[in-house]
Predict the structure.
Amino acid sequence: MSLRLIRIVFIVTIILLLPLIAMQFTNEVSWGFSDFILMGSALISIGVLYELVAKKSKKPLYRFAFGIGLFGAFCLFWVNSAVGIIGSENQDVNLLYGIVIVVGFIGSIISRFKPKGMSNTLFATALTQMLIPLVVFLIWPPPKISWSPSIFGVFFLSSFFSLIFLVSAILFRKSITKN
């Protein structure tokens, strides 16, 4: 695991160099020290989690499905913390998207990372992803909160993340061995 950890840290370092380099050439990218720590921690955590879980399966399709699910969770976290999904990142309602990640995490633990349970978990994660904007719309319709870029945009973005989780769920389902 130590060689794998070194490889993960190396890859994360390369990824984090991209915004650092971009900051030298444009004011559009403006990361603080805490941004680098947050993203570095998130990327290392995801890399280590992938290594711990994926190495237990010999099936490439399972590993791919797990990678897709982690990719979706990371992208959801990144987009939501960087710019927000509903309105801006400063709008508290965006914290509800944390439920999506919690559903995926708890479902994975309960299913003990077995393919069928992971498939069900990712289906539930996709459904939760789509329920968040619906619930928010019913409780806080415009103009109570900002729905920037638009209501359609929020549902479209949520559909995109939901699709990633659905693809992962379907791949997990296909990775189940018929006995």
User: Anything to note?
Assistant: The chain has two domains: 1-55, 59-179. The mean pLDDT is 92. The chain has six helices and no strands. The CA atoms of residues 86 and 93 lie 7 Å apart.
